[in-house]
Design brief:
The chain is an alpha+beta fold and 104 residues long. It has one domain (13-101). It contains three helices and four strands. It has helices at residues 12-22, 26-37, 94-101; strands spanning 50-51, 63-67, 75-83, 89-93. Helix 1 (12-22) packs across helix 3 (94-101). The two termini are 23 Å apart.
Length: 104
């Protein structure tokens, strides 16, 4: 198990990694997920395809952040995909996906 996160300042490298998640486009996220499993159907209704939304500008893949309990100022960044039939939402760890998309 990894060490518990600390409330320390981020290194320059970590700041660049965070910015990387903000550079992923909806199309890049869609292509990445399709490369993993193009035939996947919704795990809830079993019928619908997953769609990728975008930020209001249409330039950034949808990101949500959820707080980490008991660690002030730390959150988990996630990309989302939603079923086009029932609305079921699935999450993908944004730092992992962004690093794979950008070839790191």
């Amino acid at each position: 198990m990894s060490k518990r996160p600390t409330n320390r300042l981020q290194t320059e490298s970590e700041k660049n990694d965070i910015r990387a998640e903000l550079l992923v486009t909806p199309l890049q996220l869609h292509e990445f997920l399709n490369a993993k499993n193009a035939d996947v159907k919704c795990s809830f209704c079993g019928v619908g395809d997953y769609g990728i939304a975008a930020d209001p500008t249409g330039e950034m893949a949808p990101l949500v952040s959820t707080p980490v309990p008991h660690v002030k100022g730390l959150g988990l960044w996630l990309y989302t995909a939603a079923c086009m039939n029932c609305g079921h939402v699935v999450f993908f760890h944004a730092p992992f996906v962004a690093s794979k998309i950008q070839g790191k």
